[in-house]
Amino acid sequence: MKKNIISILLCTVFLYLVGCEDNPVTISNTVNKYAPYKVGAFWVYERSKAGDIKYYYSEEVISKEYERKYKVIDTHTFVDTANVDTVYIIDTNYIRITDRGIISSPPDGMEVYILKEPFETGNTWSYESIDSLIYTFEIVEDNLSFETPAGKFNSCLKINLWDTNNSRLLWEVIFAPYVGMVAFDSYNLIAYKIP
């Protein structure tokens, strides 16, 4: 009887440890290469100048929710240099790293792969928004050299985001190895820290 109870307890502990979501999943080296998310990491971007208004965007990883899911604070800053006025908009987002890529998971629950394997020219993936619009991501270059005020980056991935319904290019996004996103839309990386 004592042996059975010990066996049941050991099996329960084993199943708990194996079945937990926090257990590590093998993430490919290529996904890790473009997803350097760690608590304390941050990225700051500046938009191309538009008159007296300067636009900044930043992301900071503030916590690890569980294995491979990170809470990120997004800050949009608008500085009117003519009127010496600043506006901040702060959002919370979640980034989840999977064995297939990087998922943006905002609080509204709409999960979207922002980068998906295979990381090679021609790879495409799509998603349907909550208002039934279809967006398509396409890797258009997989060995790009790209320069921003934060430095020159090699072996970058260039991804185009298309509004499939209207056949128009919305954004170009550049990911650099071991840095993450270095440019999107008209924003370029000006500073970053990966602990």
Describe the structure.
With 195 residues, the protein is mainly beta. The chain has one domain: YmcC-like fold (Beta Barrel). The chain contains 2 helices and 12 strands. The protein has helices spanning 2-19, 29-34, and strands spanning 42-47, 53-66, 69-80, 85-97, 101-104, 112-116, 124-128, 134-148, 151-163, 168-176, 180-184, 187-193. A 12-stranded antiparallel β-sheet has the order 6-5-4-3-2-1-12-11-10-9-8-7. It is globular and about 45 Å long. The model is unreliable at 1-25 (pLDDT under 50).
Which strand-content bin applies to the residues? Answer: over 45%
Any idea what the CATH architecture is?
Beta Barrel
Q: Please tell me the total number of domains.
A: 1
- SSE string, helix = H, strand = E? HHEEEEEEEEEEEE
Counted beta strands: 12
Poorly predicted regions: 1-25
- The assigned structural class equals mainly beta
Cα-based radius of gyration, to the nearest Å: 20 Å
**Percent of residues in helical segments?**
10-25%
Mean pLDDT: 81
Spell out the blueprint of helices and strands.
Elements: H1 2-19, H2 29-34, E1 42-47, E2 53-66, E3 69-80, E4 85-97, E5 101-104, E6 112-116, E7 124-128, E8 134-148, E9 151-163, E10 168-176, E11 180-184, E12 187-193
Antiparallel strand pairs: 1-2, 1-12, 2-3, 3-4, 4-5, 5-6, 7-8, 8-9, 9-10, 10-11, 11-12
